[in-house]
Design brief:
Layout (H helix, E strand, L loop, with lengths): L1 H12 L5 E3 L6 E3 L3 H18 L8 H50 L6
Antiparallel strand pairs: 1-2
Helix pairs in contact: 2-3
């Protein structure tokens, strides 16, 4: 169990979260996290399996803390992705509103439409 825990810790040493610019907004958003989520799920399942082992007693506290950390990371990524979805939704709505307002201004200046 100790070796398995050390391997999981080692797996996370190389994990990085990549940010990418969202369109031309100048706002960075989290890039694909599929690989991270797969690793996270795998480690949560492994940790839960270890906790069910009759040989857990000497490592119980350490394994429980690791599981809590993995679950907290998973919850954080879930919330982060939720914020991204809302941001992307609202930025599209805002851009649509701004484009429509700009088009109305152009029509008013051309004298084609009164606002």
């Amino acid at each position: 169990m100790e070796k398995a825990k050390k391997k999981m810790v080692h797996d996370w040493e190389t994990v990085t979260f990549t940010m990418t610019l969202y369109r031309d907004t100048g706002v960075s958003i989290l890039a694909s996290v599929d690989d991270i989520l797969m690793l996270l799920e795998d480690h949560i399942v492994r940790t839960q399996t270890m906790r069910g082992s009759p040989f857990i007693k000497p490592f119980e506290k350490e394994i429980r803390e690791w599981e809590e950390r993995m679950i907290r990371i998973q919850e954080t990524i879930d919330e982060w992705l939720k914020v991204h979805r809302y941001f992307c939704y609202f930025i599209i709505k805002l851009l649509y509103f701004c484009v429509n307002a700009h088009l109305r201004m152009i029509k008013c200046k051309d004298g084609k439409q009164n606002v």
